[in-house]
Amino acid sequence: MSGGRGAGSGPRRPLRIGNASGFYGDRFSAFEEMLTGGPLDVLTGDYLAELTMLILGRDRLKTPDLGYAKTFLRQLEEGLGLARERGVRIVANAGGLNPAGLADAIRLLAAKTGVAVSVAHVEGDDLMPFAEGALTANAYLGGAGITACLRAGADVVVTGRVTDAALVSGSAAWWFDWAPDDHDRLAGAVVAGHVLECGTQATGGNYAFFTAHDVRRPGFPLAEIAEDGSSVITKHPGTGGVVSAGTVTAQLLYETQGPRYLGPDVTARLDTVRLSDLGADRVAITGVVGEPPPPTLKVGVTRIGGWRNEVVFVLTGLDIEEKAALVQAQLADALSQVATADWTLARTDHEDAGTQETASALLRLVVRDPSPDRVGRTLTSEAIELALASYPGFHVTSPPGPAQPYGVFTSSAIPSTAVPHVAVLPNGTRQPVPPVPSAPPASDARGLGGGAPAGSGAEARDGDLGAEAALTRTAPPEAPAGRATRRVPLGTLVGARSGDKGGDANIGVWVESDEAWEWLHATLTVETLQALLPETAGLRVTRHALPNLRALNFTIAGILGAGVASAHRFDPQAKALGEWLRARHVDIPAHLLPTHLLPTDLPPTHLPLTPEGTAP
Prior knowledge:
Layout: E1 15-19, H1 30-36, E2 42-45, H2 50-62, H3 70-86, E3 89-92, H4 99-113, E4 119-123, E5 134-139, H5 144-151, E6 156-159, H6 166-176, H7 183-196, E7 221-225, E8 231-235, H8 245-253, E9 260-262, E10 267-269, E11 274-277, E12 283-286, E13 289-291, E14 296-316, H9 320-330, H10 332-335, E15 340-346, E16 360-369, H11 377-384, E17 395-396, E18 404-415, E19 422-424, E20 430-432, H12 468-471, E21 485-489, E22 495-501, E23 504-510, H13 514-523, H14 526-532, E24 541-546, E25 551-556, H15 577-583, E26 585-589
Parallel strand pairs: 1-2, 2-3, 3-6, 4-6
Antiparallel strand pairs: 1-7, 4-19, 5-14, 7-8, 8-12, 9-10, 10-13, 11-12, 14-16, 14-17, 14-18, 15-16, 19-20, 21-26, 22-23, 23-25, 24-25
Helix pairs in contact: 1-3, 3-4, 5-6, 6-7
């Protein structure tokens, strides 16, 4: 297969690197589609997430030889030969908890199919046994181990827990022979990697303005990374979806915190990123400034948190709240011994509805306890025993079931020097990967955690430079007073994307013009956000400004409890939190609204931006 340049060789053409997986369970055919859709040098796959580590941990308990993403191995049954024919290197974090086992399985597959490839893997992230009760504990490694494997001639590199962007930055460092202190170049590759890591989210998937494009089957993204670290985000010709400044902005804001996006190899300054539309499905990323990484790595730990169960009661027609109150009163004694019992009434019912389903609301009971017996089938059966003795029209969405385990995700930091990062080369040589020189201790006050991605080893803290005030050089002027406004959904003008990071969530919002940015920056404060989203009241919310992207990024601490695996919230990964925000009605200056989106049946108002129903 083709190789990167060695020391002393001339400038290389841009690296063409694609992505074929954004999560464990993504489109199976994407691997083949990316290999056959156009030229590539490297194809990456991101299979790991906080919930995935819990799933793989349970797999490993049952079968110690597993612990890796089995889907990836099945994709290679066809993909390995295609990659070999086309000279494409494969780099994936599908090794999960057992990268050595996956590497061996790939070698067996290669021998079986007659495809001559060299396989290497990266290990050292697995820190078990880490703490009492831990199911998994993994440090988020950087890309240097990937670089070492590719330099040694590996055709396939599989890793355990590395940062998502490391799949791209590690490959780019090999291709261009970058040094560890090439901070700006590495930061540019990290930003490109962050755009690619979630697959079709960069090509129109989960995009706020999806109605403007055909996104029925988006193609997977690729990046053309130049030697200076700049890149062009695009996709194979003829594939679905769209690559635009908007789709790239949305992904840049996804699961980030402040302007400093911290990683094991480099700190990328998101407030320096500039986007340029180069035409159809081509967006350039330039200007990224890099700084040394922090001296610590993040360690993600999963545990079995206890046992949970749920019953969803369907309430139809009249007296919805009274019906809900009756069920809660009837089950009060049965729930008195349960550690936690949460009731949620979703008013999905409509007055004078034309169908029974739209006349119905959902009352959801979720119970959790350290003991499976207290929340098992006995409890759910007691709920079902009310079927002939409760509210009129009693029925539930599913029969009683057994208790199910739920997970808890926590994170901590560990010195980089304490993690045995090792590249296991194709010939079996174990090459230690030294920690990257970190920022001096004085830089800690500059914002370790302002932009912490998965694997940064840092959390947001009050007073860090990650806070907006320390980075905004000049605040945009306030929106002109006295202009006519329209009360419309915020999303008429503003895009948003939200996601999870442990128990925290982020909402990134952006607009597409300088004038709209001035309004957004002046208006959407932390206080306004909390008024629009009452579920965030009482939680620590931090706002960060990214003027180059015309974007604000809000982090909401603790809204997801112990993380996605604990199912603490109706939307446990905060995937739709941004869409809820966009749906709230606010007063927007009429001159900012697209003409074709202006409502024709509402008179202009001159009210300040307030949540629906609280205008003075």
